[in-house]
Amino acid sequence: MRTQRSSWVLPLSIVIALLLGLLPLPELLAPLRPYWLALVVAYWVIEDPNRVGLGFAFIVGLVADLSFGSLLGEQALRLVVMAFILQRFRARLRFFPLSQQALAIGGLLLNDRIVTAAIHVALAQPTLPAAFWLAPVAGMLLWAPVFLLLDALRLGGWRGR
């Protein structure tokens, strides 16, 4: 019964994350834009690994590449790397308090920026600005609210952490 009631949460959360990624921001705030899609995929990899894995992350990444107009496969690669690391450490990460989970997610988002920078270097694209490295901090700070919101929607109520 619970899965029928909350089966809409996964696709809706992905669509909202894609829309938040497309939302225009003032030039001053643009470097702080968190990688919403990574936060949502991270939540689902941690909390529902039977439905969300590497294949799901790859498909969502391809959809994001098409939506954002980025290099085809770039976000797919980034999300698959993140999902792989999360799957590897899921058993431990699930039982961390939210503050420690946020630090781990911040590290994963920093790793995502390193992967992105490596892709830019490999393709001889222009160097990314220094402010590019600030977004993982915003994502780390948003992890707890995103986690709690998705958890409440998925489970149908607030769960104490």
TrEMBL record:
Keyword annotations:
Cell inner membrane, Cell membrane, Cell shape, Membrane, Transmembrane, Transmembrane helix
- Spans traversing the lipid bilayer: 6-23, 52-72, 130-153
Membrane topology qualifier: Multi-pass membrane protein
Q: Does the keyword ATP-binding apply?
A: no
Cite the Pfam families for this sequence: MreD (PF04093)
User: Where does this protein have coiled-coil stretches?
Assistant: none
Q: Which PANTHER family match?
A: ROD SHAPE-DETERMINING PROTEIN MRED
As for what it does, the entry says: Involved in formation of the rod shape of the cell. May also contribute to regulation of formation of penicillin-binding proteins.
Q: What family does this belong to? A: Belongs to the MreD family.
Name used for this protein in its record: Rod shape-determining protein MreD
Gene behind the chain: mreD
